[in-house]
Amino acid sequence: MSESCNILDHLPQAILLEIFCRLPIYDVTRCKVVCRAWLNLLSDPNFTNIYTSNTPFTTLLLEEMMSWSAIGTSSMKLSLLEVSATGEYTRTPLAPIGIPSDHLDYEHTSLVLVGSCNGFLCFSYHKYHSFGTSVVKEGLYINNPITREYIELPQYDEMLNTRDNIVRVKSHHFGFSPSTGEFKVVRIVYSVASIQPLTVDGKPEIRICTVGVDKEWRNLAWNPSNPLIMSNWSNVVTLNGVHHWIVVDKIHTFDIGKEQDGPILHLPVTVVGSSSKSSLSSMELLILNNQLTLVDNYVLSHITIWTMKSTGLWNLGQSMSYFRIQFQLRYVVRKSFQLQCYETGRCYF
Fold it and tell me: The whole model's pTM is what?
């Protein structure tokens, strides 16, 4: 790596930033090895904010597979799919995410992508002791998939409830608060005595951790009306520092910065108007073009997309057959890939 970039060193920084923001992510990472001056410029956290606010590309995160090596490191293959305004796309494999692990003493280990925010990924790992014992060790990592840098959040060991009729359910939710400039992770643990009918055993344990600030998890004095819906059975999305998730026929919210409940939003009337339809629907929240978006997959035959206006009213965007969507996706990635797309407008992921 050279110390300078010759004539390009004399370009004003504003012009350099304008050039870099027009490049795909893969080319930006290649520019880091050109010279030390570019490395320092492109490694600055402020550049990430500038890039994500000005890039002309719509970027999707593709999760292809997860594997475990024999030397105790976990690896998940991720790719970026960058789509231009003309419909052209570039697929860029990310460097393998290497997270050190001592799971060799365990029979069962899982790594889960909790969420993504401002170009960072949050992973949770669960390492279960062998011989079927109920002790589990868990941890969370915040990872930059491009630089492969990561930090580990405070760890803790937990004994699972050994009662036969009790299941402990955990969920983690990663987000950023623009009002405080902080990344936070909310952790919810609760006991489920039965699924049909749904019975929660006792109050949930809710904790929060501010990334890079807290040395241990803080208890959160928050009693959500239905914490079970914040499990993996319902997706949680973050818009302007507020978590959103569906509870039956409403959308509940949680302000990350204030660490308290937000307003309750209503789903479109036509979505919840028919009980028979609702029972067959698969609803999912997304953030598209910085707008709260509801995708209603009705009876696995049609996809209906709704977006919420600034007035709080829903706007019906489009409706298409499920076959048409599957057909189009095959032109983007090979059919054998497991596809998970997170489209957040101007952000990396």
Answer: 0.69
